[in-house]
What we know:
Blueprint: E1 21-23, E2 29-32, E3 37-47, E4 50-56, E5 62-66, E6 68-73, E7 76-81, E8 115-118, H1 121-138, E9 141-144, H2 151-158, E10 166-170, H3 178-187, E11 196-200, H4 229-237, H5 244-256, H6 266-280
Parallel strand pairs: 1-7, 8-9, 8-10, 10-11
Antiparallel strand pairs: 2-3, 2-6, 3-4, 4-5, 6-7
Amino acid sequence: MQYNSWGPQDLTAPARKELPEVHAERAMVLEEVQSGWVGAVTRIEKSGGMHLVALEDRRGKSRSFPLGYGFLLDGAPIRLMPPAPRSQAPVPAARTASGSVKLSGQRAQVAKASRIWVEGKHDAELVEKVWGDDLRIEGIVVEPLHGIDDLPGAIAAFGPGPQRRLGILVDHLVAHSKESRIAEQVMRGPGAAGNVIIVGHPYIDVWQAIKPSVLGIEKWPVVPRGQDWKTGILTAFGWPHATKEDVGLGWQKLLGAVRNYADLEPSLLGRVEEVIDFLTVD
């Protein structure tokens, strides 16, 4: 990544362009936008002069749709094309950004009562980018808290229970920190035991959970004590940092460098997987 190439020219409106053309393949998980149907490709056939794709949901039910526009792949709109000519090379199993195999017949569930809470918008966007496919299949929604100072009150208002669990991901959850004291207080509260899990990573901000090598640097810059951390990071990178909009644009630049779980630190990966297991394993 070339930091010195990013500047005002990137802030202009993007030019219109055609949607990416993707050849339909067996086991590819798609969403048909108009109906909301989510399923894996089981076959592509020609009928009445048009190509149809059959999508099988996680319950084994199948529906067919005309190829073309109106499909989402990994949450992004595409133009679905007929299968590419066969090659002799083996086709690897399709995987989500979290590294799990995309299972045939899986579809998004209606959102459950259980939730994953994260500290802010950036945390939520990172979790969605890497674990979004898995969470949609499980019916788990990620919500930003915008800070945890009133976490005990927020949990009391939520009313956790056996069918209404909470998994909470906290920044800078280290011994003797403010965050650790809040977590200890919460877990002593009514209804928390067995229904709430609080995990965290050691970083000041979720930005640091991105591996430095992904950004083309050896390590994250050190921000002097007393300076706003995100402002200090953007300053060190030579990026605009004067406004909230600058911070948001800087984060989108960082988030854009993340392709999948391999671009994140293990200390975050393990904690998110722990939360998902807590909310989905009976």
